[in-house]
Amino acid sequence: MDIRSAQKLAWENKTEKGFNTSDTALEFGLLTAEIGEAFTAWRKGLADFGEELADAFLYLTALAEMNGIDLEHEVTQKVEKNTKRTYKRNQHGTHIRVSNE
Questions:
Q1: Radius of gyration for the alpha carbons in the chain, expressed in angstroms and rounded
Q2: Residue 54: which of 13, 98, 100 has the closest Cα?
Q3: Structural element, H or E, at residue 88
Q4: Are the CB atoms for 28 and 82 separated by under 8 Å?
Q5: Which of 24, 52, 78, 97 has most Cβ atoms within 10 angstroms of its Cβ?
């Protein structure tokens, strides 16, 4: 499934079931909670780690839909942008971007 299709299906599910479709701040809060659940599942080695990541993705797609953002387009653009960037490590071992091209 591509991102655009997932975004559409997730949105249809939210609207059909009466979930939040207008409160962006609430959706950010719910996304944050799902990220926390995914972290806990990963940290504890729980079997539902993948499901928790999927939940986070679905909340992210809802945020995009609420705000008129084509997430597939944005991800594609961002990946292309990131592949052109170069980094080096500073004296502390931190990656520092040295170019955008």
A1: 17
A2: 13
A3: strand 86-89
A4: no
A5: 52
